[in-house]
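note to self: dont lose this again. the chain is below, predicted strucutre after it. 523 aa total, dont forget to put it in the shared folder this time
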Amino acid sequence: MSQQGERPAAHEDDWWRRLYDETAADARVSSAADSLDDRFDSASAAVGAAGPGAGAAFPEPPHVAPADGPPVPPPPPAVPPPSSAPPPPPLPAPESPPPPPPMQSVQARAPWEPPVGPTRPSTFATPPPAKPPSVAEAPPVPPPPPVAAPTTASVPPLPRRQVSAKPKAAGAGPTTPLPAAPIPGTAPEPPPALAARPGLSYVGDRPPTYDAEPTALPATVPQELDGLVADTVLDGARYGTYTLRAASVRGDSARFRGEPRRDALLTVRFGAAENALVLVAVASGARATEGAHLAAADACRWIGGAVGRSHLRLSEDIRAGRRGDLKSGLHRLTDRGYGKLRARAVERGLEPEEYTAGLRCLLLSADPACRTRVFFGVGGGGLFRLRDGVWQDLEPDVPDAGAMTGQAVVGFGSASPESRADGDLLTMDLGIATPPSPYVESPPPPPAPPFRFRASVARPGDTLLLCSTGLAEPLRGEPAFAEELAERWTPQEPPGLAAFLADTQLRVKGYADDRTSVGVWEA
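---
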């Protein structure tokens, strides 16, 4: 049986016997045109007469009867497909790229002959791909303009292209143009969300003498690397109802001469939560003295350590409003710090006035319910408050040396408990006044600098400014400088760190000293 299941009419090997039967006569050459050349000519004629899309490239060869054996009937004609309704008219096709050029007819050649003409990839007459449906939100992209030949004439700059914010539909082509590169020679546009700071870099009729940027670095030796100070220090924080900004910048004259910054800045927090206490210390070394920057750093470090060891008691006193306890306690801590400075001067072989620094500090509670701001310190500088666009000088008045009696700390002008009104000492048993000795064993120590203290309650919208002498002097002596800073710092939102640094560096001719400023913005 065959693979289809029907039974063959004859033996399966009859066709093989009939093909190789030695008794059968030779078929000889047939009179029909059935040679290889005849078949090639027939195929060439068929290909040459058929055009593109006319059917198969090689038609069926004509039916040839075998030389012997029963005649094989010709194949039946192709049955035409059943009649059907005419196809509907084609829908208008969307815009599509121009169709490819029609396939040229292939010149008849033998399989072993080389192709005629230049070799190129084969092309097939396939229908163009269907274009995705257009999106209503995205307008059609116009075709690119033809590229013109390069010329030597100047070409005007192309206009900037806008970036569309509409989302691209799924399956749609790219409809949003990319942002164009900035045109050479034009300044980039600032982002709309950022407010530009005023471009004023100095006030007055003339610019300052020195350059605005650092010029020379301070000279040092390998043994003094620990004492190096940076040209600029910047810091900030936000606690409770206030925002803190602090900056210390080397002066123009020190930048030009390669001298170190004599101002020192310390910002530190002790404790956590509502009991946290923020200390900001600003120290300025003595002018024209060796190691002034080291003395300023020592003053900040020692007062920071003293406040840190007593921060719990100080935080409670500030929140409770114990002004007397705060004044006496901070006075005592400051005195101890200056005692260490005098001892360090002796170690370095210097006089006490050669190794000293002015010190000004702020104590700020992190409790949102506490708006008490405490200032204390010794030496020059400034304490100001900006309220309703007007500067107020809050520098505490320093009493005269003769009036510094009573509750002051011993060593800062207070009288000895054994003295009378005229200052003479009395013996304990006889009550006889003892005259002073005419012999002085050592010179008396220099008078201690007066201690400054002030505690005030801040209001919403206030700006408190603590600064060194380099910023306090132009603020008091140059009205245009004070007006410019008041205009920049009046808005309710405090400036950022970079903006605050730029405001601190606003220059005035004739004021080239180091500048250190601490601003506290009340919400």
